[in-house]
Amino acid sequence: MNVTTIDPRDGRARPTDLTETDESGVETIVGQASRANQWLADLGRLGRAQVLEAIATSLGTRRENLVATAQAETGLSHTRLDTELTRAAVQFRMFAAVLRDGGYLEAAIDHAADTPIGPGPDVRRMLVPLGPVAVFGASNFPFAFSVAGGDTASALAAGCPTVVKAHPSHPLTSRASADAIEAAVRSTGGPAGVTSIVYGEQAGLALVRHPAIRAVALTGSASAARAIGAAIDERADPVPLYAEMGSVNPIVVLPGAAASRAEQIADGLYASFTGSGGQLCTKPGLAFVASDAAGDRLVEALRDKVTASGGVVLLNRRIRDAYEQGAESLQRAGARLAARPPIDAGAGFTVAPTLLEVDLPGLTAEIAEECFGPLLVVVRYRDVADLDAALAVVPPSLTGSVHRGPSDHPDVVRRLADVLAARAGRLVFDGYPTGVRVSWAQHHGGPWPSTNAVHTSVGATAIRRFLRPMAWQDAPEWLLPEELRDEYTAIPRRVDGRLAPGSDSHG
Q1: H or E element: which one contains 126?
Q2: Which of 167, 233, 464, 494 is the most exposed place for a label (fewest CB within 10 A)?
Q3: Order of strands, edge to edge, in the sheet holding 215-219?
Q4: Residues of the chain with pLDDT under 50
């Protein structure tokens, strides 16, 4: 079946020269990925670091074409896409640094010794690659969470070939990204199969069921995760699924914060819930604001900004329809319409930003559901002490945020932080959850239903998803990986229980 692409700005479908991948095509592609395993292993950490840097360079040299292609398939702005492509390249470079550091291996050596329970053998342990990984590209990040995204970068860094199932919202962008990666791999002497791409829903399911695939990574909806999970359950040997799904990301504005900077917070909230069409997994969906004069000023400023706004183009018809239905469902559940500008939707997937409001006693599980798109529910509370119970209604999320002011007592802030920390993977203070820094300390994950695992999909430790522990007992020195040999001291290792810092972080 031929693959089409749709420009969300006008809703028109256009043909491509791509076809959906059939079962034999999936078999060929996974076979190539399996054979590429050995090449990645033979490269070692430092060789793979060079490949990752070559990929980052290749993405940069194709920037103009990549951004233009993505703009026609997503309706996102040139600035947003240009920044996102830079972010994608940064991820590859960061994982090159992770490889050179070597600490991610968790290398440990216990020399043979007498122990309280008798002679102990020589045991050495480190993390090793799982094998080929299936990656499902996200609709809302055509670069940073798609073919050239963090899942691909971290899997390749771990030494795992990747096969990416292209998202139907941007097939041409997916192919252009794959071409950039493949060119970089060829320039470093690599074979076909280091990174490959398949098209079509059935190809994605066949990929997941293939016995050579050793892990699956998804950024998408809970329904997509359930479908992939069902396919994994059909396997004789189930493999891990790392799914990042929906999130409400509550923001609590304490009374002192509103009193000291109501208009500033309104500006930041508006930018955060409408940026990129509100199509971010970290978009704040609920904002708790006090029912006092300062809170009124904040909400009024938000209303003014939303009323004066224009239409926002969403990524595809399914997201547009779900957004409209979600906004209606929230109002039927008791949320009041506070602001929604009149727009001319035209033929594309344009929608109006929506601001809803509800009093704290009226907050229900239905109103606390995520609505993907430019919608925010403001929850008005009278007493900060009531927030503990109210936040228990909010589904666990990727993030939780607290805005403080000079008059807000530290004990109140601490209590809220504790409540949110039990239900989120990242706490944000006096800021907004959109904009996930790519760094060593980042954690982008959270309790179910925001993700299905304790791991992160952004930051250095995202590599951990595609590695498994391996121990060698009384192994001959020549057989050991070099990172576990006695004379090798370039990376951090725990030797006989003591942490030994690496002598050279660059290996």
Answers
A1: strand 123-129
A2: 233
A3: 195-198, 162-165, 133-136, 215-219, 241-244
A4: 505-507
DSSP states of 142-155: TTTTSTTSHHHHHH
pLDDT, one tens digit per residue, over 389-444 is: 999 999 999 999 999 999 999 999 999 999 999 999 999 999 999 999 999 999 99
Cβ 400 vs Cβ 423: under 8 Å: yes
Rounded Cα distance, 398 and 447, in Å: 7
- CA-CA distances (angstroms) from residue 102 to 46, 88, 158, 307, 483? 9, 22, 11, 52, 9
Alpha helix positions (H), 210-314 = 222-233, 255-274, 293-307
Q: Does the active-site annotation cover 244?
A: yes
SS3 195: strand
CA-closest candidate to residue 148, choices 65, 84, 224, 74: 84
Catalytic: which of 53, 84, 244, 370?
244
Q: Encode pLDDT of 221-252 as tens digits.
A: 999 999 999 999 999 999 999 999 989 999 99
Q: What is the pLDDT of residue 504?
A: 65
N- to C-terminal Cα separation, the chain: 48
User: Which entry of 53, 84, 281, 357 is annotated as an active-site residue?
Assistant: 281
Q: What is the DSSP letter of 407?
A: T
Q: Sign of dihedral through CA atoms 210, 216, 220, 226?
A: positive
8-state DSSP, 451: B
**What stretches of 62-108 show up as alpha helix (H) in DSSP?**
63-74, 78-101
- In degrees and rounded to multiples of 5, residue 65 shows phi and psi of -70, -40
- Which residues touch 357 (CB under 8 Å, ≥6 apart)? 299, 335, 336, 337, 338, 377, 378, 379, 380
Strand pairing of 162-165 and 195-198?
parallel
160 is catalytic: no
d(CA 481, CA 287): 51
DSSP three-state, residue 359: strand
CA 427 to chain CA mean position, Å: 16
Q: List for the chain the helix, strand, coil content (%; round to 5).
A: 45, 20, 35
Cis peptide before 396 (omega within 30 of 0): no
Residue 317's CB is within 10 A of a number of other CB atoms, namely 14
What angle (nearest 5°) sits at the alpha carbon of residue 174, between those of residues 172 and 176?
Answer: 70
